[in-house]
Each structure stands twice: as structure tokens, then as C-alpha cells.
User: What shape does this take?
Amino acid sequence: MHTQFFSRLSQNYIELLKDDEYYDATIEVGEDPNVKIFRAHTNILCYRSPYLRRVLVSEKKNNGLVHIKLQNISPEIFQIILEYIYGGILSLNGQDTSDFLKTLTAANVLHLQELVDYLQKYLIENKSEWLEQHFGDDLQMKEIEVWEHVLKWGLAQNPTLISDPNAWSDDDFRTMENTLQHCLPLVRFFSLSSVEFSQKVHPYKKLLKHQFYEELLNSYLDPNREPIENILLPRNMTVDNIIDSRIVNLNIVSIISRWIDRTDLNYKFSHLRELYFPYQFKLLLRGSRDGFTPKKFHELCDVMHNTVTFIKLKGSEEIIGGYNPLKWETPRNWGITKDSFIFSFKNKDNYKDTVISNVKNLDSAIFSHPLSGPIFGKDIIMHAHNENTDYDTIFCRKFCYDKKIRDSEKKFFIDDYEVFQIKKRRV
Assistant: This one.
């Protein structure tokens, strides 16, 4: 005879949570102002959670009590977790789906693998629509790693498949495609470099729709190719100390950095590639902080090589600017280079209409003048009547660079401008 009385046992352990006499651990959970102290029992916690075991054994007892803090879990979620630890019960009735995710996150932190597996399966099978509507865009992982993990997961679902796609039959590809049908649209293939595409995606081309694969291939081969609609932008990676700008965001910084390094033949796809940050942008001048006079520009920017200028136009969201690999000077002088370029963005969130214009007249790439700010050929002009007065003549036209970056050649006013010096980052 073999009988299990788990229901009563579970209830007794839940009641033990309310015990105010035999506990030997206190857990301070949450952050101000939402903090709560829970009483618990080290033996139960240590046997149920590998994470809590590691934390508890490293703490010394004070008057027979161990005290630990868990600041990254809310008291409400930890109450749910404790009921699972003690009684094997998951009480999420009436809870929002977001609470399921918070519980999953907490369970993962505490290494409660049984609970993690259950919640993942439950969310996928029962809350898929909610997950799609609240899809996160801040996964801190390179896109090639995402693709590799997707493939690894697909192989795990099909243990009879070998890992080498070159040995797969057409049936094998169909099996894998069916397994990954919901994952493939979420991989940002256009973010991959040409090398990553060639080595990691091309062998699996039969998993992708023919037209999509051809568009992807042509984005690397054809410099004049236009992006198709509805391509997912790169993930919002968190990168510190790249730039302090009030004009541009990290996507624009990535595009400009790629063009400085000439890493992508087709700049129309630059905004779709994985964000690229080889440089730190050191702020030299901000007009709204330092002033809009030629004198201040030359004080802060003269003799500085490798600078990028961003100009925000007044009355619109338009941004123009240029890259100067040479140094700025006060005396009237032309700078000769083949590496400078100018650019324009309709706004800081619209990258499809970006214009990058390379220098055409190398002898007239850069112009320095005591009564001017940054001047790129005769294409971007910022001039004043006096070194101590604000710029009063600002316009843009096609002359020394190969493309027109603005439709209008009329004078305009600016909200702000910034000049940065780029330096290689230490990775």
C-alpha cells in the first residue's frame, strides 16, 4: 500500500510561515518605500533554493537569527514565492500577466527551476497574445547570439537532427522550419554583419522564405538596394559613456560611426545593422551651453582632429552635420581630405531617409575662418559678422560634396549645435 498525503503536509508548511516562535531567518524584501521583513526557516530555504542556500550559509547568525536582503524582488511577489517554497502552491489567481512575469523572474533569480519551467510553459501556452503585445525590445544580447540560441533550441526539440545543416535533407529543413516558425520572424537578421550572415545564416537559407532571403542577401551585395518595409530595428542595447548629446541618439551615433569606418557599403541599411560603437564621443562644444559665436567655437575646437558636428534646425526636427578628420583652425585655410562627409536626418527617429554625402572636391573639403564655425566645403556654412556675435548666416547647398543633403538652399536658424571629438573606445 502506498498513499500520499501531500495536501495536508502542504497546508502544515504554509501555516509554518505564520509561525512567530521557531523561525531562525529574517528576509528584508523590496526597496523603499515598499519594504517588508519576512520570517522564515533556514533548513527549508536551503533545501528548496540553491541561491538562498548560498546566501544564508555565508551570513553569520546574530542572536540565533540570520538576516538577508532581497532588494530586487517586491514583497508581493516574494509572498507568492514563499508559498511555493513551503507548500508547493502557486497562487496567481486574479493576478495580472505582468505578475506572472515578475514571479518568473524572481524564481529564476532564486534558482527554482521547477517553477521556472512551469511558468515559462504556462505563459507560452496561455498568454501568447499578451506576450506579443508587450514584446520587449531591450534584450542585452548580440543578434548573432540570439540566432545561435534559436538554432540550439530548435535542435533540442528535434534530437534526431544532427547539428550540421550541410547534412540535412529537405525533410530535415522542413521539420526545423516548422519548429522555429514562431521564432524566425523575431530574429533581426538584417542586424547581422556580412561575415555573420555568410558563416551563420547562409548554411540555413532553406529555413527562410525565398524572397526574404534574397532581400537579406542583396542588402550586403547591392550598394543601391532600398530596404523593404517592416524590418525590425536593432535591439535597444544599453551602452554607457558613448555620447552626451541633446540632439542625437545612439542609433544616429551608430550610423555615423559605421560611415567613419566604412563598414557598410550601403548606408541605407546602416540603421538596420546591429548598433556599432567603436568610438566614444567627447563633447567639445554645445551652443546652448557655450554660445553660438565663432570665437567660442575656435577656443574649444581648434587643433582638435576627428570631430563630428551635429546641427539641430529651428522649427523642425531636422538634423544635419558632418565629419572632419582634420583639425579646425582660426586662420583662413582650406583642408584637404578624402575622408570627410556630411549628412542629414529628417529627425532623430527616422533613419530611412538618411542622406550621407561624401566629399567630391578633395581640395575644398573643410574650410576654417576666424568669423565662422564648422564649415564643410561650401556645403554647410555657419558664419558671423563678428567673432563675438552669434552666427547670422547659416545655409546648406550642394557644391563640394557629392549629394544634396537638404532640399532648400535658403538661410535657416538653429536650435542648437554640438561638436564632438571621437576617440577609440577601450573594450
